[in-house]
Input
Amino acid sequence: MTPLVPVSPARKVAYGIAFFIVFTAVWSVATFGGFVSKTFLADPVTMLREGYDLFTVHGFAKDVGMTVWRVLGGFVLAAVLAVPLGIAMGAYKPIEAFFEPFVSFARYLPASAFIPLLILWAGIGETQKLLVIFIGVFFQIVLMVAVIVGSTRRDLVEAAYTLGAKASGIVRRVLLPNSAPAIAETLRLVLGWAWTYVIVAELIGASSGIGHMITDSQALLNTGQIIFGIIVIGVIGLVSDYAFKRANQRLFPWAST
Amino acid sequence: MSKLIIDKVSRVFPGVRGGAVTVALQPTSLTVADNDFITILGPSGCGKSTLLRIVAGLDTPTSGRVLVDGVPVTSPGADRGVVFQSYTLFPWLTVRENVSFGLREKGMPAAEQQHIVQRWLERVGLAGFEHHHPRMLSGGMQQRTAIARALANDPKIMLLDEPFGALDNQTRSLMQELLLSIWETDRKTVLFVTHDIEEAIFMASRVVVMSARPGRIKADVPVTLPHPRHYTVKTKPEFSELKARLTEEIRVEALKAAVAV
Output
């Protein structure tokens, strides 16, 4: 191996698949070989069978649908409010000075610690789930967008001024288009975090969703279902991340490296 | 008639963390006639870029003032087109959209914009590259686009800050010829900053030599070589004489700058 030398696309895929083969092999040896008790870790075959049962017998598709809906709902709500605020903060320093200390503080408040309070305020319905995700991602998006917009190349801004642009033109025609690809990448990253928060929200006080299924399975010591649920989350995450990435490349061809 | 008046303009940068202040530019005065092509020649760090930025309105003088057509400069504006040394094309816009940036800002109808943009792209030799994005262009092509972008706005003055500094020698010579031929046709007032002596003489009707920091104008040398100038003018005795004289002027300043550092 030589540092930084790229691999061919075919090899790249092969290496990626190889990891999952090795992972499954280790898992199989540990479970089928009797090194780990079935109570604590189901083997791969049991896991798949349990997964099949989940969809055919227990109506797991509805749980998956609920979870996806919550993630998207909370994420879109947060993004719609956070992106404009972040842009305003990045572009106008007085606005940044006003909000930045509070947002920096709020960013460190753990969303999961708000769950008891949110249950008290919003009950155990959908509003509470959306709020957990909202609190978890809103402040992060605001700060990251503000940094992106604020770090726009000064010489591009100066060039626009010398071409006759005024303040609003600078924001609309330089800061926004220049920051758009990085903002889209930030949203892609944060969508991943939203998945973490939704599961946490569903572990407590939920009657549907992947997280709810996982808590139920824990009570029944059904590790196969738990692992299957976790894998489903991973797969959805992978697919949505890939879709997001492709959409960004299509939207901003000039930015791709 | 004077297009541009630089009246006792100075620039002092405050010291960093209580350190000594930096005098980038001593009070400097310069009058530029309409249709003149002035090159400002000086060693690096002599404040020539600072002077240009002040004329552009991107920097504020500590004292003195700048007048364009008798109107004081307070901020950047479309009447002073600037070409920077760094590549400042907007990466998200195509070549055509970059060149029409200023026209769109003025609210010009799209058809009229296209007409002007197409004409300038042809003049800088970029017809056929309208739909390319900047990252697909070479450095020379990017700077040609930047020149077209500034000229499309029809500014009163063109300000160029070592625009060919990052280009290789051959490209640089071709760009000088291109810019000079545009000037010979349009006679737009130009202020061109450079540290390259040949470049300064080849295009200018006047070479203004600046001293090492703190910058001030040290010499003002008219260049009377006839127009249109062909690149072969660089081998003429008159050119060589000027070059020898300016080399001497600059060398003294470069030595001072080297000692100061």
Q: What stands out?
A: The mean pLDDT of chain A is 91. Chain A is about 80% helix and 0% strand. The two ends of chain A are 24 Å apart (CA to CA).
